[in-house]
Amino acid sequence: MSKTYYDPADLRKFGNISEWNEELGTKFFDYYGKVFEEGALSAREKSLIALAVSHVVQCPYCIDAYTKDGLQRGIDKKEMMEAVHVGAAIKSGATLVHGVQMMNKYDKLSM
Amino acid sequence: MALLKSLAAREDDLSNPANQLKFLSNGIFKKGELPLFKDKIAETDHFPLKPKKLEILQLNLGYMCNQVCSHCHVDAGPDRKEIMTIETMEQCLEVIRNTGAHTLDLTGGAPEMNPNFRWFVEEASKAGIKDFIVRSNLTIILANKKYHDLPEFFKKHKVHVASSLPFYKRDKTDKQRGEGVFDKSIKALQMLNAVGYAQEGTGLKLDLVYNPSGAFLPTNQEALQNDFKVALKEDFNIDFNSLFAITNLPISRFLEYLIASENYEDYMYALVEAYNPTAVENVMCTNTISISWDGWLYDCDFNQMLGLKVDSKVQHISDYNEDLLNDRNIIISQHCYGCTAGAGSSCQGTVT
């Protein structure tokens, strides 16, 4: 067994999750594939969204996968980094907006 | 990074094709983690792989090139001295006059650097071949005064120009092909446009060849073509006809890069995962004969670089016989996964 929690080679084995539950695994991968098809949003736009979300959920597999996907689609490093900042801004904004709750609570408890 | 010297000049182990083939059969393939190419195509009854009708004669006029691109499967460069002689060219012309193939495809190195290139093009263009392609790296047009009139020369002989341009932005192009390559390529494309290439009504075709600048596969050819068209028009007022998206095959300098950057295994996994049995039906070795600078015959340009001569009684241009050649089995190895990934890959782009 690997002594680290994440092994980059495990990404190749993602499809194996269906081996222990074929029905749910198949449903998931069908859904996943459908989500990333061209639609009202282009596959390129979806790739950038996926890259941003990958950072927000801090999934190393997803970051590897969507950096590569972006390269394949001709997305350049400036676009990728801007997408990451969008994710980071929402994440930090989500933290900071709770400051209002803190302020509300502070005011309520204070005389 | 673009390189300074070829593998051959560096006397690197990988300059020996036997070492490359050994590498491609060891490791993940020997351990059975990934299937050998012959076993993979056997799943759909494509083994042994057989040629269909011959459509393309591809001639490699020599390995000499003014560039030393980091992905080059030819290991071409200024230090390569292998050049097709006029005697071999004459043998090729005899074949071109009698072939059933409809396309003649000149490649290199930089084919324009062959001292007899212009004579050969003039003679070959008289043979009445339907589509006469010259693969130009573009920068050669600006490399020396003696090449500046190449656009006019191509136009005069109605040559179909296929030009390498890895990306429509400077940084990626220069990283793969060398400092300043992008600006020179843009200038050369503008020169080709100026004499009528890719302009309506001229019949002069200018195609671009895209290959990924790294350890990843090309995306949809049509989407890339669209991106290239918009960017090159907006930024540089450049027109071209079609874009061919080509997958980098894991041989020669690209193999060296994959190994050095520790991307080899992931890349092979990606190729095998993207294996498309439909692409096998149309891989270019099924309709092409590749002829080396010294007149030997190969199933494709990649097999040429791996030293894998055709499996036929006829192995040299001096004995050329199309019927006998068409009866051969095509030689394959793990590098062939590069031509069957996704929409497939060939010198004419995707194959499905």
TrEMBL record, chain A:
GO molecular function, one term: peroxiredoxin activity
The organism's place on the tree of life at top rank: Bacteria
Membrane-spanning ranges: none
Carboxymuconolactone decarboxylase-like domain location: 23-101
PANTHER family named among the record's database cross-references: ALKYL HYDROPEROXIDE REDUCTASE AHPD, BLR3452 PROTEIN
Protein's name according to its UniProt entry: 4-carboxymuconolactone decarboxylase
UniProtKB/TrEMBL annotation, chain B:
Superkingdom assignment: Bacteria
CDD domains: Radical_SAM
GO molecular function, a single term: iron-sulfur cluster binding
Source species: Gillisia hiemivivida
The name this protein goes by in its record: Radical SAM/Cys-rich domain protein
Keywords, sorted A to Z: Iron, Iron-sulfur, Metal-binding, S-adenosyl-L-methionine
Occurrences of domain Arsenosugar biosynthesis radical SAM protein ArsS-like C-terminal (ranges): 217-350
Pfam family, one: DUF3641
Reported cofactor(s): [4Fe-4S] cluster
All copies of domain Radical SAM core, residue ranges: 60-197
SUPFAM superfamilies registered for this protein in UniProt: Radical SAM enzymes
